[in-house]
Amino acid sequence: MELKFGVQLYSVRRSLQKDPYGTLAKIAEAGFKYVEAANHHADKDDGIGFGVPANKMKESLDSLGMSIVGCHINPLNLDRLPAVLDYHEALGNKQIGCDIEFYPYNDIDYVLRRCELFNKVGEMCKERGMRYYYHNHYQEFQKFGGKTVYEIIIENTDPSLVFLEMDTYWMTRGGQDPVQMIEKYKDRLILLHQKDFPKNAPQPLVMFDGIVDIEKEITFNTFEATIDPLCFTEIGTGVLPIQDIINTARNASNLECILLEQDHTQLDEIESIKTSINGFRSLVHEVF
Prior knowledge:
Elements: E1 4-8, H1 13-18, H2 20-30, E2 34-39, H3 54-64, E3 67-73, H4 81-91, E4 95-98, H5 108-126, E5 131-135, E6 143-144, E7 147-148, H6 149-155, E8 162-167, H7 168-173, H8 178-184, E9 189-194, H9 220-226, H10 242-249, E10 257-260, H11 269-283
Parallel strand pairs: 1-2, 1-10, 2-3, 4-5, 5-8, 8-9, 9-10
Antiparallel strand pairs: 6-7
Helix pairs in contact: 2-3, 2-11, 3-4, 8-10
């Protein structure tokens, strides 16, 4: 299978909020053919989070020569999930995921209950010929009983129902080696997020090195309060081993798409993704 690359639309969320169709056109103009959405309003919006009807979204993507390869759904509500899946089926999107909804990880029993939910969502997706995937941040690398939350999730979810979208930036900030993680879990890896960490960042690379206590509960407020926008930079301008990550990812036979992402930027959003795509291509031109 040919390995593709695209952009996570969270990178241009402000632009999309103001002008969704115009922003999609600018994304296409920048050179992207594949997008992943992030709907953080799934309690009231079945689609990509900007009130865009499925038929209009499909029409826009088709006219621009683009397609959607996934979407984060938050909150993940089983009662609303059928309508969400209807929307994404209409777009031709074959997979949805979750990213930031299921912490703090109070104890191992809580994590196991989340695993049961993930399996259920995976079943609902599979019934439609779709897939469900789990996206990490750094919190999953807290431990219970000697195992990380990430390990517990992987060991207690059905590999035919729950797949992985690795965010290599957040894995690194959780103290993990993303190259080793890709190698270890390559059979379940279907999407990969890539961003970069600046050379002169105001925080240490690993969040547990003095920014967040790995032994204490990490709430959403903790997560938000400890994110420094200056700790994100465009692809190829920072210190992460992106070339090694991509070379390793090539051996993950089920990986469909690498998605460039900026949680925060000091640039205009469109200029940011243009800088990232150019940096990405210069680093891995022999791959794509």
